[in-house]
Fold each of these.
Amino acid sequence: MSDDNWRPQIVAFVCQWCTYAGADLAGTSRIKYDPNVRIVKLPCSGRIGPLFLLKAFEQGADGVLVSGCHPGDCHYVSGNLLARRRFTVFRELLIFLGLEPERLQFSWVSAAEAVKWTEVVDAVTAQIRALGPRRQGWGAEARLQTSNSKAQSLEAQPGTRNLKPGTQKAVEEGIRRIARQLLQTGEAGVIVGYGNGTLKDVTTPLFVTEPEGVEQLVWNERCLNNLSVYLTREPVTRLGRVGIVAKGCDARALVALLQEHQIERDKVTIIGVQCAGMAENGRLAARCAVCDVHTPPLYDHLVEDRALDTGDWAEGDPRDREIAALEALTPAERWAYWQEQFARCIRCYACRAVCPLCYCETCIADKTQPQWVPPAFDARGNLSWNIVRAFHQAGRCIGCDECARVCPAHIRLDLINRKLALLIRDAYGYRAGYDATVAPPLTTFRPEDRAEFIR
Amino acid sequence: MMACRMLRPEKLEEWLAELLRSERRLIAPQRQGEDVVFQPVQTVDDITLDYINTRWPVKAWFFPPSEPVLRYRYQGSGVELEQPNMALEPRVIFGVRPCDAAGLAILDQVFNSDGEDEFYTRRRTMTTIVGLSCTHPAASCFCTSVGLSPTASAGSDLLLTPMGDAGYLVETLTARGEQLLWEYGHYFAAGECRSKEAVTEAAEARMSRQAALAQGIELSERLFEHPIWAEVARKCLGCGVCAYVCPTCHCFDIVDDSDAWGGVRCRNWDSCGFSLFTRHASGHNPRPQQDSRYRQRVLHKFSYFPQRWGRLMCVGCGRCVTNCPVNMDIYATAQAVLQVQGVKHET
Amino acid sequence: MSERYLIEYLSRDSERLPAMRNIYRPHLMTVEDIRDETPDVRTLRLAFQDQAVGESFAFVPGQFGEYSVFGAGECVFAIASSPADRGHVECSFKLMGKVTHALRDVEIGDTVGFRGPYGNGFPLESLRGQNLFFAGGGIGMAALRALIEYCLAHRQEFGHITLLNGARSVADLVYKEDMVRWAEQPDVQLVRTVDPGGETADWDGEVGFVPAIIEKLAPQPEGTVAITCGPPVMIKFALLTLERLGFPQERVITTLENKMKCGLGKCGRCNVGPVYVCKDGPVFTAAQLQALPRDF
């Protein structure tokens, strides 16, 4: 693949108790093994955050190896078991984006396993040497030309189903009635709902503080915004106790915000609305085709849609077919696809701004000490930003797809979100935004969690 | 008055085909998924004329979202500077709508002012803008409200206005345009000079948004402190979409991106809507909340820029309106603010 | 750039193309001296590596520069050295963000970048013949230092000079060595003050916030220009105090410290109303500030 003089640069992040001691033993035992690995020692594999792995790739590593104590041997009881879930998700994310699986490897090596350590290093080095230097995008500034890639023929598939709008007028009346009542009784100081936008076919978030104002509240198939984002916004919450109009997906965000202690249950009144699905480009939005929260999972008042036809969307989520098509590609083709997507990113951070779960006071992308996300909007910076965004949402994203809707460059963030949601559902039996009382999947573990990729 | 010629409809494609074979790089509107975007042309068949406006303004071809303005390498305790290699090639950008071309005229003032920014101006002088008048404005368009028109010539080097079967009226507006016309004169008929007035009027009649915003906003302390800003900005989520799709927004950041051997100093687009935009290292922020940041956006376009440069910094393309995640609408806001100001205006 | 550029390119006369001037290209500077003013304020003395540039470099007190550490980025500070100090610039910075931390790590002999001078500088003509009342708070003194040095170097052109230097605590007072030298000059009154609680047992200066000490010193408005720089809250109250003492707004001068990136009126960051602080400032009279929207 490359010239004979090329030597892979591999960064190994290891735990100080087991693997580092094992590697040390390999050295004092004078076992010969491949010298291409630079070791970074950390207290525990639980401290080996995905950002570190990302940074290594960003700075030019051809491969990254992560190693810690065997399950059960963690010197901090469960650091490696928690890390295992993060590694699983992060690895799958990078593979989905087109990284060859061989470039990011994991192992458990104990302090006694000097030989295993040398075997792991030799095997990983051999695999990465066979792959050759890493492709462009990480470390390279040039943008990839992907004019003829198979991946490019993948185009967004709009929902194929027609809308079944239900009885919008009756629902609208129901929302107004409850809103009026909440404002009149003082239970809410502000109703966060939808109003007519300034252009035809557009609604806009609306904040109603007077009972007379409720007539401006509307309900139709264009109520796309996930309004729960405003519950963590001071300019809105300062208006008083919030009553919020919530579709099923919005209510899932509220569940997640409760779970993460960002809102208090008794300080918000949820006007749940039965929703038949929202429209994008005149058709049913893709995510709505597999909606199982036509009735919100959490509400104080429910506005029923008598004509609600939740349908039988037997064809499933069209995005799942796109994900399958992407996964059928070679890593190089997938990489090219996502490089082309991310090349369009202009870092407007609209994806972040509309996300109800992106509530951090200062986003890690805005932090400069250390500079986790490269500041240039080039292939490297854009890739890192999009990976960081996706990973921080893993196991938390409730699938409202607002990020994908607002992306002015039409980057398929929805595919990434969906891919991770499916992974977490299958691996950990968890879906975000249904139950505020359970622990989020990346904050917990089970001893039997999957580990087939760990050497 | 400018010289004008006609371009027969069947000649347009021939001309573009020859431009494509020339040493000028031809950039023109092409389909990309559901959008139309400016891209270098591979074959003339890729060019589309079926668009109201392109997804992005043409600005990024002169002022890219992110570009190195300096490269450096570490040499011991010293540093070696390198000029970033900015590929300079003669270009023709075909099909720029008058609003976006007017945006370039605004950027010219900023980047050409003392301390000329040659990253921008060199690209500008190497590029000939062939404008294409707009006949069917979108519902979000409001160029006439800000003193422009669907056939305005500001910022174009040549402007083509479709005149029905007769083809395109060609206006030559600058030396660059003249040069192009001189080189390709055989495509252009020197027939009688017709007025584009009827086309302009027809296009303007299709414009649903027609308020009088061109006089700008006259700032007073009362207006600056008025609760209307908090009111309109309440739903603003503070992303950068409006600035990044704007043909005239030009705020930028300068950051270093480096490794162990050296690095680049990059100029990145930035937006006054971001909370970090004005925040001092000490934590003090003169614009601590979104209302003051959105106020800056509106007033910069409708008050500050006009005071300094004598023209509005809004061309009425409507992109910020259609791309805003929460339907912030600068047209509606400007109207509302003018109402507060007490200036008579019509809708 | 002229239209000729394109024509010349097209006529393949490319060797006649002028070399690109890059307004963002900094001068390379060698760190010659490092002085710790306080636990978190440091002064760097920088020499131009290109001697010709150094010899021709001139600035007006009050102008600023973009100082950069290659790899960390650029940062705006006032040029704190005397304009008479040819071939050099000095800057004082407080440890705050990414660039100042990187600047803190440079050593004597290292290379850093400098662009400038930018901004308007102090209106020297309108200061001549006047009594000068300087009031600086904390790192704000850095913006006044060049002017103080200038005035002391041209001592006969100015009337009585009062230097009020305030800080949070005794340890935080900047330019301790300079103050000794300044106080030795004829007709110069040096007043040092620290915030209440910031004094030490042997402190012989004033105790109180800068505006309070201004009030106490009560400079005579007639024939005096007040020049003040410091943190936003100090400036706010210093201006109010000076107004109360009868200073007309035209005779109160301060500097705005907005965040800046380009220094050239392009990046938009320091825009306040119709002005760009980097071009029209950073020096403003209180009267000029009064006309601006409260956006700084």
Note: Chain A has three domains: 10-131, 150-155+315-443, 168-303.
Amino acid sequence: MKLFELIGKYFILMSKVFSRPEKFYIYRRRIFDEMDALGFNSIGIVAIVSVFMGAVITLQMAINLESPFIPKSLIGYATRESMFLEFSSTVVALILAGKVGSNIASEIGTMRITEQIDALEIMGVNSASYLILPKIVSMVFFFPFLTIFSMAVGIFGGYLISIATGILNPESYLDGLWYDFRPYSITYSLIKAAVFGFLITSISGFYGYFARGNSLEVGRASTKAVVVSSIFILIFNLILTQLFLI
Amino acid sequence: MIRTEHLVKSFDGRVVLDDINAEFDKGKTNLIIGQSGSGKTVLLKSIVGLFPIDSGKIYYNDICYTDLNFKERKEIRKDIGMIFQGGALLDSSTVEENVRLPLDLFSTMTPAEKLDRVNFCLDRVNLHDANRLYPSELSGGMVKRVAIARAIVLNPKYLFCDEPNSGLDPMTSVVIDNLIKEITEEYQITTIINTHDMNSVMEIGEKIIFIHDGKKWWEGTKHDIMQSNNKELNDFVFASAMAKRAKMNAETCEKRA
């Protein structure tokens, strides 16, 4: 019963979030601010995680494909497919659910308990839309760019490790990257990124917006936001893969 | 003028406000007083519409606020300014941005006109050269003054203050009290202040409503308080030794006269 109540509350909040904004130019400014706060500030962590993951995938492939019958270029191919199909969208989304999700839930939750949201409501502002919509829009647009960035950095990580360790010839790695290349993999990954961006921001915004009580409750709301966002990312990863790849 | 009729509000079956009938006059500082937990804040937030009420009516100048839909209420809310206990300034915005926000959202002013209006309001609350500061860089008194500036920036008809003196030293409290009173008289605003600070009551209480256990227990002016025989009100008002002494002095003077 409580689950249905929660789902109902979520959709009611989303209907408030997507209602007509008071003034578009203020929302536009806020969207750019949020892109900076949530998107640009995540570039560092995405770069670090992606470069290491690309390098590790390449190393593991090289270690496990020690057969004279398997061409070395397959290592580059496997790295590319892993990065494009799963890592750069899904794994990066899970990492960002922790970083961005907790940030959003704690920011909005703190605004709730310090009456800042009440102050907006008193001014006649649609607080749900004013606070959550710019975050959703900015992440839905920016997360696909982060995904492309992660793909490029991850593949570069694999290339670097092939040079640094000499475990495979960099030319073979590059050959593998172009082997059976289908641009649809990128489209599929970008669609997933946009959906995950929406899930992270809307779910975290929901838990923050309905936080009550004190700082402890804000902490709990933040944790719940991360856990629920992560679960929904995994569920939607399955659904989207079924829809777009099979 | 704001009026409540038979206002009832409960939380999870527990009645917090019971049959409140009250009238708050225009151009006066109307005070709601009472102990912590008596229902003052709930009454204030119910009147502004932050808490939906169980039954009863709330009137803003003969417009029944409780009968209005969300869109119609929004129009009245543009005439409302509110000062929250902790200031409730947006942490991520500067002083100037905080005060300008209502103008950005609801006015058709040019950026230069907005800046003039913001500076006028900040001057009015005696806050100079603070435009670029963030709320975390302000003192408690400054936060309250910025909150007042933000509340009056759209020339509101109604001003609500939830414990405007909480956490302030006595001198700053007097400054804030006098500021609210001056603004109320200057712009003929209907001001409702929620407080348990007896200094404020004796300083600016033109009309006082005493709430006890969720009920309206007493109504009068700051002059009536001294003569009241209401036990609960006297227990609340004369709880401090200083206030007791003031009452005894008043009684002695009366006897001598």
Note: Chain B is about 45% helix and 25% strand.
